[in-house]
């Protein structure tokens, strides 16, 4: 097949783990970029970079991290970009890069990110700050090429439901109830899922934690696996205590040829889509489903002219077990992971969860697997917020017959049914889902509850009564009555 010279190609993906600490994020990116160029086998590739897009960083603030990276790798880019927060941003950046290359707006694009959160937290514990690069106001801020994911709906803000470790357990309970499992049965189910993820990480040379865990080790609380929020102890949460960087280099086919990148290193983005569910959790049609994943992933596969059964290498975004299961269900796959692996990295608990940048690692890993299996297909799914924003990418070592294709599917997602929200409800509601939040001392602090009010609207509430917390932590609560105050506080009824 003749390849259009503007066809975008992913030619290198570098990944680094800094276990000794002390290396700032932009230098982790530089190391990863150099590894990506070495993988591509083209020594001058970094000098040819004309666009540097950096995934949003949390461990350090730069005005334009892409400019610092460019300076360190010897590039003179026409554009540098930065993103807001959200785990879907790496795949969005790849979709953008492929579109820009195909249209002639860019020729060599570096997509990269890093976190030195482990180092930052160790220093913070000692009352210290790292001596890392600062950019004063003479440096213009980089263009925000992907905005922040919304995570502050009023229905959540008013009760303090303000972080993923509080929200994803609500999705997990909803999945359990839909599946008809008892609490004990579901603990075994998610333990088996995450144990399988750890087995993948144990064989991944770039994983932060290269050890296989049993189902009981990951799903049952212990001295080293304290409760965070039922049903999730620590090992069922993303691990952000890492110092990791990853970088991807994409270029046009003609540039890859000109710079001598061997064809054995070429991985073609075939398609990309993005979509989002409702910003407000309470407005979701169901807490255990995602129309945006179903529609966005289906369309990405259609654009690549394949089905899910044609995908050999799959990496589902894996911040929490519920995120994996919801996506697997929407993809038409077994959510237990028993029929096929749902990750190529080992996931954010074991491979590492460097905040927004996990999917850069996932894309690099999937690309490496594809190079080892020429002609196979890979699919990466990425997620921001509370299963809110999603991005999808299909890849193969074979070029796409119709060129790279990207499509906006949001109009179809927006046509899906949603749930009315009762923000200031006063009365008796029926519990739909719940989670109990624990402090570091192992004691329950509060519980968050999603409940249906008469007429079917959903309200979110907080419970703090000690007796109620004890019941919510141990007993089956689905369908139980809850007395909700207008303020959002509630008691078991």
How would you describe the overall organization of this protein?
The protein has helices spanning 25-40, 65-73, 89-103, 117-125, 154-157, 164-179, 183-202, 215-219, 253-258, 291-303, 321-331, 347-350, 358-372, 410-414, 466-474; strands at 8-17, 51-54, 79-83, 108-116, 143-146, 227-229, 232-233, 243-252, 268-276, 311-315, 377-384, 389-396, 405-408, 427-438, 444-452, 458-463, 481-484, 490-492. Strand 2, helix 2 (65-73) and strand 3 (79-83) form a beta-alpha-beta unit. It is built from 15 helices and 18 strands. Helix 6 (164-179) crosses helix 11 (321-331) and helix 10 packs across helix 11. It is globular. The chain has 493 residues and is an alpha/beta fold. The strands form four sheets. The protein has a six-stranded mixed β-sheet with strand order 1-8-4-2-3-5, sandwiched between helices. Strands 10-11-12-9-13 form a five-stranded mixed β-sheet, with helices on both faces. It has a five-stranded antiparallel β-sheet with strand order 16-15-14-17-18.
SSE layout and pairings?
Blueprint: E1 8-17, H1 25-40, E2 51-54, H2 65-73, E3 79-83, H3 89-103, E4 108-116, H4 117-125, E5 143-146, H5 154-157, H6 164-179, H7 183-202, H8 215-219, E6 227-229, E7 232-233, E8 243-252, H9 253-258, E9 268-276, H10 291-303, E10 311-315, H11 321-331, H12 347-350, H13 358-372, E11 377-384, E12 389-396, E13 405-408, H14 410-414, E14 427-438, E15 444-452, E16 458-463, H15 466-474, E17 481-484, E18 490-492
Parallel strand pairs: 2-3, 2-4, 3-5, 9-13, 10-11
Antiparallel strand pairs: 1-8, 4-8, 6-7, 9-12, 11-12, 14-15, 14-17, 15-16, 17-18
Helix pairs in contact: 1-2, 6-11, 10-11
């Amino acid at each position: 097949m003749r390849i259009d010279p503007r066809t975008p190609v992913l030619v290198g993906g570098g990944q680094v783990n800094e276990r000794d600490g002390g290396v700032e994020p932009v230098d982790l990116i530089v190391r990863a970029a150099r590894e990506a160029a070495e993988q591509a086998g083209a020594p001058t590739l970094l000098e040819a970079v004309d666009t540097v897009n950096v995934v949003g960083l949390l461990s350090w603030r730069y005005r334009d991290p892409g400019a610092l990276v460019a300076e360190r790798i010897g590039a003179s880019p026409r554009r540098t970009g930065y993103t807001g927060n959200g785990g879907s941003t790496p795949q969005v950046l790849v979709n953008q890069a492929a579109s820009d290359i195909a249209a002639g707006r860019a020729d060599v694009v570096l997509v990269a990110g890093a976190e030195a959160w482990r180092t930052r937290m160790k220093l913070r514990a000692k009352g210290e700050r790292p001596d890392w690069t600062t950019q004063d106001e003479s440096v213009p801020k980089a263009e925000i090429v992907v905005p922040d994911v919304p995570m502050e709906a009023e229905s959540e803000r008013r009760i303090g439901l303000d972080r993923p470790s509080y929200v994803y357990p609500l999705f997990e309970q909803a999945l359990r109830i839909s599946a008809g499992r008892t609490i004990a049965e579901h603990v075994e189910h998610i333990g088996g899922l995450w144990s399988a993820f750890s087995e993948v990480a144990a064989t991944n040379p770039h994983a932060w934690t290269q050890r296989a865990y049993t189902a009981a080790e990951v799903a049952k609380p212990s001295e080293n696996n304290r409760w965070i929020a039922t049903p999730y102890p620590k090992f069922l949460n993303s691990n952000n205590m890492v110092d990791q960087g990853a970088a991807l280099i994409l270029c046009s086919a003609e540039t890859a040829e000109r710079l001598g990148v061997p064809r054995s290193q070429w991985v073609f983005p075939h398609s990309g889509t993005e979509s989002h569910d409702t910003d407000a959790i309470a407005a979701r049609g169901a807490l255990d489903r995602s129309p945006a994943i179903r529609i966005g992933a289906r369309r990405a596969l259609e654009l690549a002219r394949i089905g899910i059964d044609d995908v050999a290498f799959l990496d589902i975004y894996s911040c929490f077990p519920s995120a994996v299961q919801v996506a697997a269900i929407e993809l038409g796959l077994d959510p237990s992971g028993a029929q096929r692996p749902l990750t190529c990295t080992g996931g954010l608990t074991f491979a590492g969860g460097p905040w927004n940048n996990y999917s850069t690692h996932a894309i690099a890993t999937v690309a490496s697997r594809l190079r080892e299996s020429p002609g196979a297909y890979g699919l990466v799914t990425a997620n921001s917020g509370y299963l809110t924003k999603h991005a999808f990418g299909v890849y193969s070592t074979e070029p796409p017959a119709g060129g790279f294709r990207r499509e906006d599917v949001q109009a179809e997602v927006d046509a899906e049914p949603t749930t009315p929200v009762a923000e200031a409800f006063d009365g008796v509601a029926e519990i739909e889902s719940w989670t109990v939040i624990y402090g570091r001392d192992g004691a329950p602090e509060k519980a968050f509850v999603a409940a249906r009010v008469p007429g079917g609207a959903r309200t979110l509430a907080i419970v703090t009564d000690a007796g109620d917390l004890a019941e919510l932590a141990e007993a089956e609560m689905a369908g139980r009555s809850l007395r909700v105050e207008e303020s959002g506080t509630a008691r078991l009824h």
